[in-house]
Backbone:
């Protein structure tokens, strides 16, 4: 419906799509249209909701992106005919929020509808790379924590041994030495 995807034969680089931001002026323009429809008609068209949500998702601010997510999720329920488009933008939004697990679920849901969509497959690959980076970073942090813990335990054992050795009574005089 909304023609939101680039040509499948030549999809944009995923980084370009994910880093695309909207100017505050553009966002304000779409927000005014959204609010005007809401005020005048008490009902906002799916097209206006879509355009506003897509602007919100391209914002630099997490709160805006979350608001865009809410609109897209509502559109999925209210306008199932265009669910495919909404799912794609939900995957983009969650990727921008670095919620890769949720984003991955939307990519999988999209690929169930359209399994050969190159742009969505590229998004899935991007998400996998980011998850792998996070896993490696988390593993490095965990490994570092284990090293620190091991070092602390080693120091603790050394101090305990030193303390224990100080508490031992003086060595007994050897039996073969004469006593005074």
Residues:
């Amino acid at each position: 419906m909304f023609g939101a995807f680039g040509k499948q034969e030549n999809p944009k680089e995923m980084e370009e799509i994910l880093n695309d931001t909207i100017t505050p002026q553009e966002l304000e323009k779409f927000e005014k249209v959204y609010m005007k429809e809401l005020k005048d008609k008490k009902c906002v068209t799916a097209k206006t909701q879509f355009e506003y949500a897509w602007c919100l998702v391209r914002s630099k601010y997490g709160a805006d992106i979350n608001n865009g997510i809410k609109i897209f999720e509502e559109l999925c329920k209210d306008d199932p005919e265009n669910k495919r488009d909404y799912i794609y933008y939900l995957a983009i939004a969650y990727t921008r929020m670095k919620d890769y697990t949720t984003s991955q679920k939307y990519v999988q849901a999209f690929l169930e509808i359209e399994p050969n969509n190159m742009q969505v497959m590229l998004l899935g690959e991007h998400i996998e790379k980011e998850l792998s980076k996070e896993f490696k970073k988390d593993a490095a942090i965990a490994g570092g924590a284990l090293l620190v813990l091991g070092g602390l335990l080693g120091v603790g054992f050394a101090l305990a041994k030193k303390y224990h050795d100080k508490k031992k009574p003086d060595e007994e005089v050897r039996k073969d030495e004469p006593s005074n």
Q: What stands out?
A: The radius of gyration is 30 Å. Residues 118-167 form the longest helix (50 residues).
